[in-house]
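2024-03-11 09:14:02 DEBUG pipeline.ingest accepted 1 chain
2024-03-11 09:14:02 DEBUG pipeline.ingest length=142
2024-03-11 09:14:03 DEBUG pipeline.predict start
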Amino acid sequence: MMGRLTRRPTGGRSQGFTLLEILITLMILGVLAGLAIPIYSRRVEESRANEATVNLNAIYMGQKIYALNNSGDYWNGGVGPAVADINTTLNIDINPQFYDIASISAANGANPKTFVAVATRNNTSGGDGVTSYRINDAGVVS
């Protein structure tokens, strides 16, 4: 008759993890999380900043078409234009969530005519309310 293939504790010790082994494992996991969380947060904010550049590029294209239909004049939305006004006037469809359109200003009296649109990070979802991106009539985002 064959015996069972079970492992018996040696030296009176039970099989399991010691408190020290568990603490070391938790410390290693904590260090890994400490390294990963800041990187993850940066990537999330970069994706939110992408929203700003996409919306500003849509405004840029809308402004160019608006100028073609209005003797070269750009639309001057002023400070804090309503999204509905932007979408209707420029015939675009933006929906800012993390970066509000702070202003759209046009200098139609200048030669050449220019415009600048600014998107600023809002204070929702951990935003600072300061970070901003702008696009000008040449399509340069800064």
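2024-03-11 09:14:41 DEBUG pipeline.report The chain has one domain: 23-136.
2024-03-11 09:14:41 DEBUG pipeline.predict end
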